[in-house]
Each structure stands twice: as C-alpha cells, then as structure tokens.
C-alpha cells in the first residue's frame, strides 16, 4: 500500500488515465458492442481423415494426461448437420497439465473464419479443460480482422456423436467487439 500522502495523487492519476482513454475512444468514433456467435464444431478423432489426434502420450502411462499433447483441425459449420455450410476451422493444441488421475488440459485454440460474415478474421481462445463432460468455458483472448481487440468467453459442449469416431460440439461465443477506426 502507498504511504498516505501518496494515495490521493495516485488515485487522481489513475482516474485521469481512465478518463483520457475513454475520451480518446469517443473522439476516434470507436464503439464497443457484445456479439453472440452460435456455431458447431465437427470432429473426427480416428481414421484416415482424423481432425483431432494425440501427438504425444503421457510419460506417466495410460491413466494420466500429464505431459500429453494433442492437436485439432476441426470443421466449423453453421449447423449441427454435417451438410450445413462450412465457414471455418477450429485449430489448436491441448497440453495435459494434470498429474492427478483423469483429464486435465490447457488448450489454445484459433477459430479461423473462411466464409460467412466473419471471413478473413480469427478468434483466439484459451483455457482449461477439466474433463470432457458438460460445458467447457474458455476465455476469448484476442482476434484479427473484425475481431481486433476482442475479449469475452466461449462455451463448448458436445451435443451428439453421429458415429463412434465423430462428435458434434455446439459453441456459443460472447465477444466484446470494438467498432471504429484503429
């Protein structure tokens, strides 16, 4: 904690910096808005055209995920049906980070939009995966194109398993987007 005689000047300096950044945004014509994006990730994890695979198994054996590495290059589609429009790729890595039994991973994912209203843009998400049941939440940590300065969160949930080697995952992304001049 700062000495009592410095507390007020530090507070005023902090307030001034917040005010000036808000004024700069307003002067530049920049606005911030919350956008909800609802999509589906189609994954195939075995066979010749697998889109998800383990690259390195855990050195602690089959009952541990610690030290394992996996990669994904899944399809992003507008719908849960395999014939719905392909609009991008769900690409990333998973690192096994749990020394306890079961699954504990850290993921770093980039959603690469190749078609639709966000074509040419990307969103980057990262966060833990503590098991593969229920809804997994990850932080939106940035993006490119229409998603410059993006922040928010993504919810990821498996909704179906059309075949023994595939699954369909629903994603809901809530992202604060900055609109205006940069």
From TrEMBL:
Signal peptide: 1-24
InterPro entries given in the database record: Allene_oxi_cyc_Dirigent, Dirigent
Source taxon at top rank: Eukaryota
Record-linked Pfam families: Dirigent (PF03018)
Naturally occurring in which organism (per UniProt): Urochloa decumbens
GO BP, one annotated term: phenylpropanoid biosynthetic process
Principal subcellular localization: secreted
Protein name: Dirigent protein
Localisation: Secreted, Extracellular space, Apoplast
Family that this chain belongs to: Belongs to the plant dirigent protein family.
Described function: Dirigent proteins impart stereoselectivity on the phenoxy radical-coupling reaction, yielding optically active lignans from two molecules of coniferyl alcohol in the biosynthesis of lignans, flavonolignans, and alkaloids and thus plays a central role in plant secondary metabolism.
Subunit structure: Homodimer.
Gene Ontology CC, one term: apoplast
Keywords, ordered alphabetically: Apoplast, Secreted, Signal
């Amino acid at each position: 904690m700062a000495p009592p005689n410095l507390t007020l000047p530090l507070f005023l300096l902090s307030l001034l910096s917040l005010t000036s950044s808000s004024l700069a945004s307003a002067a530049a014509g920049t606005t911030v808005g919350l956008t909800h994006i609802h999509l589906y990730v189609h994954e195939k994890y075995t066979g010749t055209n697998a889109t998800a695979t383990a690259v390195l198994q855990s050195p602690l054996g089959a009952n541990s995920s610690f030290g394992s590495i996996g990669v994904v290059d899944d399809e992003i589609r507008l719908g849960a049906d395999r014939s719905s429009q392909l609009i991008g790729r769900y690409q990333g890595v998973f690192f096994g980070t749990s020394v306890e039994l079961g699954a504990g991973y850290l993921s770093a994912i980039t959603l690469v939009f190749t078609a639709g209203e966000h074509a040419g843009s990307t969103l980057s998400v990262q966060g833990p995966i503590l098991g593969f049941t229920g809804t997994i939440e990850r932080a939106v940590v940035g993006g490119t194109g229409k998603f410059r300065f993006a922040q928010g969160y993504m919810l990821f949930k498996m909704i179906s398993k059309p075949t023994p080697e595939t699954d369909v995952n629903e994603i809901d992304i809530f992202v604060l987007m900055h609109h205006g001049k940069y």
